[in-house]
């Protein structure tokens, strides 16, 4: 539970050192070439084609870009992760959350480029997202996960509903 303790502690301790850069956060790129940095941002001005390429890289089904744009616009929070080398910036991670702006938030669309997986960057992306949600006094954070990534979220302290499954879904015919 060290991940969650770091989000609730007054010292803002983190296993990933961050350095404020306006609304961005930077860490040294793990295993990257010369002077690459990883930068986190909450700016929603994202090239939708670049986001589509990122989603393609992990094998997600394509979604209509007009709907993706609308989902981003109506999200409570968007956190992106970029590889920056000099003036070149490449989108390597994306996440977003919807919320009631008071108690609850649900995390959606967490994606990290396959070349950057297994290096702690997905954890860092989730840390930035949850830290921002906590700074807005959101305390109930939920998410939906595909079976092959459940252990990733369990390692971050997420758990199945301890009272049993309370969620239900309705899908059109």
UniProtKB/TrEMBL annotation:
Domain N-acetyltransferase, first and last residues per copy: 38-173
Matching CDD domains: NAT_SF
SUPFAM superfamilies per record: Acyl-CoA N-acyltransferases (Nat) (SSF55729)
PROSITE patterns with a match to the protein in the record: GNAT (PS51186)
GO cellular component: cytoplasm
Record-linked Gene3D superfamilies: 3.40.630.30
Gene Ontology MF, one: N-acetyltransferase activity
Entry keywords, A to Z: Acyltransferase, Transferase
Pfam families on file: Acetyltransf_1
UniProt-listed PANTHER family: ACYL-COA N-ACYLTRANSFERASE (PTHR43626), GCN5-RELATED N-ACETYLTRANSFERASE 2, CHLOROPLASTIC (PTHR43626:SF4)
Protein name: GNAT family N-acetyltransferase
Organism: Leptolyngbya cf. ectocarpi LEGE 11479
């Amino acid at each position: 539970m060290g991940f969650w303790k770091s989000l609730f502690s007054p010292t803002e301790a983190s296993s990933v050192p961050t350095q404020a850069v306006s609304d961005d956060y930077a860490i040294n790129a793990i295993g990257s070439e010369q002077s690459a940095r990883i930068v986190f941002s909450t700016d929603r001005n994202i090239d939708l084609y670049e986001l589509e390429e990122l989603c393609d890289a992990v094998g997600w089904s394509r979604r209509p870009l007009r709907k993706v744009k609308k989902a981003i616009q109506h999200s409570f929070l968007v956190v992106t992760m970029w590889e920056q080398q000099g003036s070149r910036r490449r989108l390597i991670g994306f996440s977003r959350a919807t919320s009631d702006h008071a108690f609850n938030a649900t995390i959606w669309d967490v994606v990290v480029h396959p070349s950057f997986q297994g290096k702690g960057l997905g954890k860092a992306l989730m840390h930035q997202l949850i830290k921002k949600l906590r700074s807005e006094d959101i305390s109930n954070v939920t998410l939906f996960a595909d079976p092959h990534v459940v252990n990733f979220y369990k390692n971050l302290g997420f758990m199945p509903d301890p009272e049993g499954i309370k969620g239900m879904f309705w899908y059109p015919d």
